[in-house]
Amino acid sequence: MNKNYNWISPDSITAELEDGDKEEIIGQLMELLRLSGKVTDPAAVEEAILKREKLASTSIDDDIDAPHALTTGVSEFCASAGVVDHKKIYLLIAWNESNSRNLKLLAMLLEAVKVEKDRILAAETGEQIHRILTAALSATDAR
Q1: Labelling 19: which of 44, 59, 84, 122 has CA 20 to 30 A away?
Q2: What is the CA radius of gyration of the chain?
Q3: Quick one: the chain helix, strand, coil %, rounded to 5?
Q4: Predicted confidence (pLDDT) at residue 106 exceeds the cutoff of 80
Q5: Distance of CA 35 to the CA centre of its chain
Q6: Per mean pLDDT, which range of 14-18, 51-55, 91-95, 121-125 is the poorest?
Q7: What residue spans define the domains of the chain?
Q8: In this structure, how many other beta carbons lie within 10 angstroms of the beta carbon of residue 24?
Q9: Strands 59-61 and 64-65, how do they pair?
Q10: Rounded to two decimals, what is the model's pTM?
């Protein structure tokens, strides 16, 4: 597994996501995801995410939402994250092919966020959230 976790960069994370409806939140997360350099077709990503959201909610619990989708609009697995008012964590996750590696990365990221939820919610910067996530991912990956 890639210990660098370059699929989620500090630039694609914020502790200052603005509250809004689901589409507004997804729009903000899409802007962050574009900073990853892995988005080849933003419209395709957003369309796939919104289509997936209409099928079923991707809420993990009251404090975590994780819109995600398989899409041709990214070059590889990538994610963005944001926190609204230290109360709710949002992730946007996209990948371009269905395989065991991508499913494992999805599961690892969701597990890391659940385990570190309180620390992520308390973080003041995207860089702090990135450090928390990569440490949690390393711990999850080591299991």
Answers
A1: 44
A2: 14
A3: 50, 20, 35
A4: yes
A5: 13
A6: 51-55
A7: 11-142
A8: 12
A9: antiparallel
A10: 0.92
